[in-house]
Amino acid sequence: MSSEGNVAVHVHRDDEATKLGMWLFLFTELTLFGGLFLIYAVYRFTHQADFHIAAQNMDTFIGALNTIILLTSSLTMVLSITAIRRGSKKLSLLFQGITIFFGFIFLLNKYFEWSHEIHLGNFPGSEILLSKSQGDILFFGLYYVMTGLHGLHVIIGMIVIAIMMRFTLKNVITRNNNIKLEVAGLYWHLIDIIWIFLFPLFYLIS
Amino acid sequence: MEEKEKHSLTNHSYSVYIIVWLALLTFTAITVAVAGINFGNATIAIALIIASIKTYLVLTIFMHLKIENNTFKVFIIIAIFFLIVTFVLLFSDYSNI
């Protein structure tokens, strides 16, 4: 694309390779979460009744709310890319900011949710949880590991987008050179996809 | 090639994404509503099918796979294929117990 204008200096850039690199990284994320989903599938299969009872502790409303928040953040992420491609730097920055804000709200909900569960004694190693069935223990173990790892990804994603905002401000990301924002978006959407599966598997099985 | 690519990218309007977002929200509402009804063993299947449809929308539209060249599509199909193979093999093992 840089060859289009009267660009005197040729900057070496390969957007396709950049995207492919990001996708390869996302595949490693797929194996990371895929492994956890496999463990979930097996334990759910072997402890069906326990999983159903344990899932009654989950707050479907907060789960659904977080789904809506994350889906909306994905929308604002993709809109920020569209905005910069249309040449609107301010709008792109606004959308990136909103995306980070939604990520923050998501984590805030998660905080309240975890606090509630911990208050009830449903945390790994607690006397109350250990007195329950094997399936309950497994369910909450997986719940904390999987939503925790996902939450960690949300935090990393927010940091990445914050860096992208700085790049946009400094004109490193521009109308004709926005691949960094695009691949940051890919990462954020993967986080969304993981949540799309986590939500029904943990909140909607009671 | 470059011209064509640029054209297809700038062609994307905001409205496409907003429509997809609304579709995603609708599917979320459906999955919550369906979870309240007891379909027995089909419940989990329905939930996973809806999640897969949502994932497809995110991959193709939000992650721009629809306008990406075929190399990406092939890579992603292979990755998902092997993930599914892993699950199928695992359950072919467990169903014998």
Topology record:
The complex is a heterodimer of chains A (about 210) and B (about 100).
Chain A: H1 15-46, H2 48-55, H3 60-85, H4 89-119, H5 127-130, H6 134-169, H7 179-203
Helix pairs in contact in A: 1-6, 1-7, 2-6, 3-4, 3-7, 4-6, 6-7
Chain B: H1 2-10, H2 14-35, H3 42-62, H4 70-94
Helix pairs in contact in B: 2-3
Polypeptide structure, described:
The complex is a heterodimer of chains A (206) and B (97). Chain A is mostly helical and 206 residues long. Chain A has one domain (19-203): Four Helix Bundle (Hemerythrin (Met), subunit A), CATH 1.20.120. Helix content of chain A is 79%, strand content 0%. Chain A has helices at 15-46, 48-55, 60-85, 89-119, 127-130, 134-169, 179-203. In chain A, helix 1 packs parallel to helix 7, helix 2 (48-55) crosses helix 6 (134-169) and helix 3 (60-85) packs antiparallel against helix 7 (179-203). Chain A is elongated, with a radius of gyration of 20 Å. Chain A starts with 14 loop residues before the first helix and ends with a helix. The mean pLDDT of chain A is 92. Chain B folds into two domains: 2-63; 69-97. Helix content of chain B is 79%, strand content 0%. Chain B has four helices and no strands. Chain B has helices spanning 2-10, 14-35, 42-62, 70-94. The radius of gyration of chain B is 18 Å and the shape is flat. The chains are: A mainly alpha (206), B mainly alpha (97). The interface between A and B is large, with 43 and 45 residues.
